[in-house]
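Lecture 7, part B: from sequences to assemblies.

Below are the input chains for today's worked example.
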Amino acid sequence: LESNLFRYIWQKSRAEQIVVLLIILVSIPFNWASFDVPKRIVNDAIQGGAFRDGKTTATLMDFTLHLPSWLGGASYKLSEGFQVGQYGLLVGLSTYFLLLVLINGAFKYVINVRKGILGERMLRRMRYDLFSQLMRFRPEEIRAVKPAEIASMIKDEVEPVGGFVGDAFIQPVFLLSQALTALVFIMVQSFWLGSIALLIVLAQAVIIPILRREQLRLGRERQIASRQLAGRIGEIVDAGPMIQGHGATAYVQSDIAGRLGRLFDIRYALYKRKFAVKFLNNLLAQITPFFFYAVGGFFALQGRLDIGQLVAVVAAYRDLPPPIKELIDWDQQRNDVTIKYDQVISQFNSDETLVLEEENGVTTLPAKGEVRLESVQMLDNRGQPLLTPLSFCLMRPGVAAVVGPPGGGKDVLGRILGRQATSYTGRVLIDGEPLAGMSVERASHIIGYSGDEIEIIAGSMRDNILLPLRRRRPDLKAGGTVSPSEHHRFVEAIRSGNSPFPFEADWTDYAGVGVADATELAARVHELLDVFGCTQEVYELGLGGKVTRPVSEQAIERIITARRVVAAELARIKQGDLIEPFVLDRYNRNAPIIENLIFGTRTTMRFDSTTLLFEPYAQSILKAEALVEPLAEMGGRIVATVVEIFAGLPQGHALFERYSFGANFEFERLNELAALALGYIEPKHRLNLIDARLERRILRARESFRKHLPADAVEDVDFYDPDKVMVGASVRDNLMFGRIGYGVPDAVGKVGEIVLQALSRSGLGEALYRLGLDTESGIRGRYLPARLRQAIPLVQALVKAPKIAVLDVSALLAISDEPTEIVARLLSHCAGMTLFLLVGDASLAGEVPLRVVFHGATGTVEAHGTPDAANDRASRFENAGRENTGRMEARS
Amino acid sequence: MSLETDIGCLRCLPLFQDMPASRLKLVALMGERLQFEPGAVLISPQEKLAGVYVILEGEVEISQPREGGEERRFVKDTGSITGDVSLLSGKPFSTTIRAKSQVLALRIPKDLFFELLQTVPEFSLAVCRDLADRVHRLASVLLHEHEAV
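Predicted structure of the full complex, as structure tokens:
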């Protein structure tokens, strides 16, 4: 990145700056004319200056081209003009003035817009450049930066720089010319007075910057302090729940208060300085007329200066301070912005950056080769070994197991091989080519790494899994016609030096990973999920996924079919009581009262059980069926029972939670009593509160609720209908179309199985799987089940079909039911690759001939039955390594 | 079948006879009331137990395969608690428990079982008594066998 702001601006926006400058130059004559015309209106038209000496007409719009004297001084009359009277002249000149005002306005508009766009483009470029630079950092450096600080730099700190860009060159040129004109004019009237004005301007130019020096230092401090504040807040937010948990909130609050205080102090000092400078500035500007009156008056009395000249000088001086003041403001802004820029740039200028892209495309490795480590060693920042010197050689394709407890050398070696750590000594050679020298792009094609830290970014699970394949630059020429908006986007991106490739395009590199199209890729993902034993979970996620509008005709048909298959299956295995279906004229005992009442999916909060009694329509229905009283009474009895059985147990006890009615207890109000009753399910809560009569009344209320539903509530309820999809409900609910019966052993499990079978039989399995992959993963995958969260990085590493896979499977195996099977499937899947299998437990590594076993930071290479020289090579390097450590110890 | 009948059933069990009514209600309410057809398996061997069963009605049969294809069978009747030993010791269940007749059982899920043990002293005392009773019976059986040999 360019370290000088002005050079950066000039390099990147030269053409545009010159265009704006030219427009300003062109505008000057018009501006001058607009000053000149009022004089003519007053002198010639109103005071009749043009009609002296008995003239009755004046000439308007005569154009004469005068050649300068050094070209012969000839003049050509282009237009004779026409003769007008005094009124005609007034109207003509006023119209001319109006025209000039419009032209000047238009110029001002064009110049401002251009300057603004210039600034915005520059800002966009700068932010993009900074971000790109960040992507070039070494992985450790990216880890070391505080996200909030970087975000504040890219987002906020460069913002004023963008605003300044339009003025950077144009403003000083413009203002200097104005100020110089006024100064020259004064000089011409009186050398002495001119000298006084010049002296004071020079004094301003010398003193003010000196005073500003402190101001600048404070500005720099303020920027750093506020950035650190952003970083600290980001950190605290990340650890927020932990801080709450430990009750350290007051402590961190005082930390923030201290930082805010420091920021306040800086700003306070800054204000004092700023206004002191302003005061001095104003004083100097206003003291000049004093000299003019005193000295100029003295000269006038002596007769060395006439009164007219003195008045003209004082008048001209009125035009001098504003440009000077603006110039000083510009200088202030320049300083400010330069500091901000330097500050930001210094954060982004790393000594060692990585080469991101391969210039001539990525060449793949040959099928056979070797991976060799030559006394690879890594120390932490205190000089303690993270990995003691290690050497071994693995023929490609081949498998090596790296065994060790978490947090030891196993993780470090994984990071080195996965190119997540680069600050090691020694060499990692892949077919003789050092790993450290590879470009990011080439390394990412060759190596698939999944380590001990889970990185899942927000977005669907599919987006996450396919992220490693988003590496093919989209074809910009494809598609023939380009829409105007797309064209505009492209041109603007190029002008600002940004990436012109549209984010929405298909970036997937099918050919590079050896698949023909999206279908084959989907098959590979499916296969990988099978390898890690996670397919079932994806289906489950799909079952839990909500059916949302719009639902395609085909999907509706499939869901309805599958729903029938489920019902048929239940009938076939004579497990009809597993699910109690929704039937319009039957009370569903396994569903809460509210569901029986409304008999539909509530798509909004309008008919929520806690507020149902306040909803006018629902209330009128309940009143009409005289249900309010009984519900309140039920609620009362529930409360009485709950109070009885929980008496003597601490409040908020877990047992209490278990017996929930889907509403919080606050026993005071009728509404809450009714809300409790609305969540009541007879077979679950078993208080014997619902009899046949009440059921009938609820059914009647259901009917009238359905019949009289007001038009504005149509969007709030989606009534159950065996031939309709329940929008807003999960796929599982849609397929069951009923409630799981209480009192049947292991009902949930059995229903799950039946539903899955029904789905695959009705051809919905694939759709369900896709729906599962569409599940939102959340930050760091917090919405995903634990096993999938562990499996996704592994799938990511393998989906790109790398030549070398470095997979830490220890966390997944620890929570898996079938660890040995997973390892076996993984080994067979990776048959053509070189696999570094990182496991915690040596017994899980299977029949792997080469093992690196770690105790702390030290690894021992164990080769079983390998006929090649790997073993003794390894031991030889190891000895060398030992000597190395010995020497190191001696030195320290 | 309502709560009242369940409580009535529970009260008849020696296990719960000393428990106050409100606590009995708690146990009855918190448990899952499950119906098993004759022949249905309640617990299969090597299963990770999800809870303990209190047999409210009907008989269950405990069978344990032995060498030579024989099976040893016991019949346990109403009122016994099953699965507590396995849950408390953390060892997998070693036998099959099958419904011999229509069985109505109250399943107390594992976490609830431990919660009850920890927070309801009457319940833990009842479980202890039941265990102690069984240990006593086991000891006397062993003693008799020893004498017989």
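Note for the exam: The first strand of chain A starts at residue 58 and ends at 60. Keep this in mind when comparing with the next example.
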